[in-house]
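Objective 1b. Sequence-to-structure analysis of Transcriptional regulator LytR family.
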Amino acid sequence: MKVQLFVSKDLEEPYAEIYTDNLTDNIQKAMVLLENDESDDDVDEGNSILAVKKGSDIVLLDFEDIFMIKVEDKQTKVFSQNAEYSIKKPLYQIEESLDSDFVRISKSTIVNLRKIKRVAPSLRGMMFIELKNGLKDNISRKYLTDFKKALDL
């Protein structure tokens, strides 16, 4: 991608223009980063959005709207209250960008702690989790300690 930077002292406010024939994930990230560029050093604000796809549309989801992120059939899916989205990033990369409200509960699933409805014992030492939107999954033994620590249990 070709990038040009022009510095001018005559501008009241900085602005950016992007010309492209294809809206890629990297361009979308750049747009989010540029739009959230604030001088008050509020680092968390710019990192509280996840760019996902619904069909051919790109949707920017606030972290607070995300219930679960799960890999199913080699595709990473993001679940909100009433919708399902897709994202091309692997789960570990998404996990790195999330805040402390999110915890991994299995090799293939991350949940938003604020969206948990209930947790109950399940089979073979695992725990069962139900989210407020009705989604259900198991917390594997491997991740149970981290899950309890995230809940201060």
